[in-house]
Amino acid sequence: MSSTIKPFKAYLYNLEKVEAAKVVCPPYDVISEDDQTKLHERSPYNFTHIDLGKDKPADTKENNKYTRAKTIFDSWVEKKIIVPEEETGIYFYKQEYKIVGQKYSRVGFISLMHLKDGQESKVFPHENTHAHAVDDRLQLTKALDANLSCIFVCYSDQQKKVEKIFSHKVESTKPIVDVKDDDGVHHILWKLSDPALISQIQQTLEGQHLFIADGHHRFKVANEYRQYRIGNKKNGNEDAPFNYVMTYFTNIDSKDLKIFPMHRIVKTFKGNVNFLEEFFRIDKVKNKVEMPIVLAQAGRNEHAFVMYSKDGIKLLRLKNRLLIDEVVKEGSSDYKRLDAVILKNFVFDKLSIKSEDIMYTKDMNEVMNQVDNGQADAGFIMNPVRIEQLKAIALNGEKMPPKTTYFYPKVLSGLTVYKME
Questions:
Q1: Which overall architecture, per CATH, does domain 263-381 show?
Q2: Are 95 and 187 spatial neighbours (Cβ–Cβ below 8 Å)?
């Protein structure tokens, strides 16, 4: 019987040949086109050259960004820019960061996670995936036979057994990577090879429900790649490399696990909004400084969000929870009570605002700037989803509306690579 997690021999950047700050990058799915260009130019060895290559007009089936990624990776291995580890281990990973001046420190580890079929799997996603994004990552995975970026998964450890191993046995040792990213987040990576300590970590996670925080597309790709590799083999080796996926694990019970809200920007917000008074208590908010404070206070006991428009700042609080079951027709009780679902059903649907006319951002200032500059008619500032909501919806087998959660900080790409050799 295979354990849920497994140590592995990662491929790592050779920091005698390259500078970590110039070669690591954010996950591919949060990199804009401008950022992609900047990262490509930052170093010929920046990880985006593999993880987020550029399409070229003359691309063919035989020569494209996926085949180029393999060629580049192989050449880096040959030049010893990226080198395989000699012994297996798991990689402890600490991220130190600030939110509104307050310091946080999130500890997790990178190892392999065992993939299982359907009912056997105890890994629960909470977001839907898009076919074109899955296809893109699947082609890259097939080209390299490798996981380039981690899935981000939460486990439960109320007694902090894993963190105690880290603080007592690992933190005082020399890290293998120590780097600050462009957002000022401090990333530190250590390797743990001690089989007895790894076994304790395996036991802590064994049989647990695991929740995907980030990397839903990568998880789907890992499962599709696994099916592709199994092919017609009836009795495959359960321990074959493709039955595992490189994963970052962190404790769902930690106060340093932060979910940011995803706010909504509506370009065209037309129609009479007097109907809102039927469903919401509407209070004027004095100013921008007060806005996040009153929203957080309201969100403790009520479903609330802020509508920001040229008519001012208004706090909308749902008058009556009994209205939810009348108006929202799909999903479980947990799903219906997500603020994003309430906003969609009570506001957007009634004004015939379609999902393609909505932009999403974790940056509250971006919402206000777009409205203030006349680029958008309205913005909706949200409270974050709570961890217990995420767990409940995932365990129900449901998916949240798109762009409902933003886990911060992101796990860097280029720290470890898992080659399925």
A1: 2-Layer Sandwich (3.30)
A2: yes
This prediction's pTM: 0.91
Q: What tens digit of pLDDT does each residue of 224-260 get? A: 999 999 886 655 688 899 999 999 999 998 989 999 9
Kindly report, residue by residue over 27-37, the tens digit of the pLDDT: 998 999 999 99
Reading the block at residue 57, the tokens are 């007009």
The residue ranges of every structural domain in the chain are 5-258+409-419, 263-381
25 vs 265: CA distance, rounded Å: 27
Token pair 């007895």: residue = 196
Burial class of residue 286, CB neighbours in 10 A (0-12, 13-18, 19+): exposed
